[in-house]
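User:
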Amino acid sequence: MTLHPLNPALARTFVPPVMEARRWLDGITFPPERPLINVSQAAPVDPPPEGLRRAVAEAALNDPAAHLYGPVLGMGALRDELAAQLAGLYGGEISGAQVAITQGCNQAFCATLATLAGPGDEVIVPTPWYFNHKMWLDMASVKAVPLPAGPGLIPEPERAAGLITERTRAIVLISPNNPGGAEYPAEVVRAFYTLCRDRGIALIVDETYRDFDGRDGAAHDLFQEPDWDRTFIHLYSFSKAYRLTGHRVGALVTSRARIAEVEKFLDTVAICPNQLGQIGALWGMQNLAQWVAGERAEILARRAAMVAGLKRLEGWTTLGCGAYFAYVAHPSAEPAPVFARRLVREAGVLLLPGTMFMPDEDVSGQRQCRIAFANVDTAGIAELMARLAQLTP
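Assistant: Predicted structure:
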């Protein structure tokens, strides 16, 4: 049935890709000895550690304020803790007043863009892109200008410079990248910062997966700029590091002046972020550094298993691998969406085709797939490789 009236900006964007892929499972059963391997979504499937769960449970039982509206910009203690830990990691001056806590990192992105761009404006987004970023830009009637990534799926500042117009409001980077897994070198991030500063536009860096970066230490030095907040906007998610996906806790870090504008958006959309989730995130930041380090080590071991396994797969090419993701070229002559659906039926594997991360006019997505391997242990990765090896291209 066609809806009338329907906002054309909403109609313009596509069906949520993860939900679309899940519908491919309808009517298919998987035998117990060969269960589905679901590598379609990057989200922890296990609950948080017991200590964090106890902190949330105790607040739910004994803290009446945990069930009431909280500050629109989030708990002061969590804002201050994130600012302090960011300053400790990256250097530079960061205050809690420059932090807004959001209902997940997707909302941090939406709130940020609401302060930057309106209908007819443009935002440069490297491809393959994170589909929810593209969806929000569509719904806001902001043009997503694709920036095809270079070798190793690293975007090139020189190429981005040629895409900037009088309507450009920002460049968006994700590092470690979703969907490509690439970790952007510090000098590349710095070059993008310089470009954006000189051209008077914002640089948004989504660091949802920074806790699983394969490099030690800070991934960039942008916070050390004395006026970093005039150009640089940092996004973060507590969901991956502390297994809080269902609690929806994210953050953005920017200037005090922009935070005041962000508050308008957040008050209108959600009034306040999830109180219990914030309590869990704060407890995690204060108590789980060693545990998170162990989680990082496990993800890096799975990454190594993916790299080694894909290297042995005939016809498959690894384009990028890091954090939660491997982005690959598949060996089939079939378009990626057709091949991905056949993988469900014949191999019991659910992954996402590259077309979900590319503009329609970019045919390279037809040859590509994303594998979200963080939910599969090394034994599961070995089984995944075995099934892919048995499949006829």
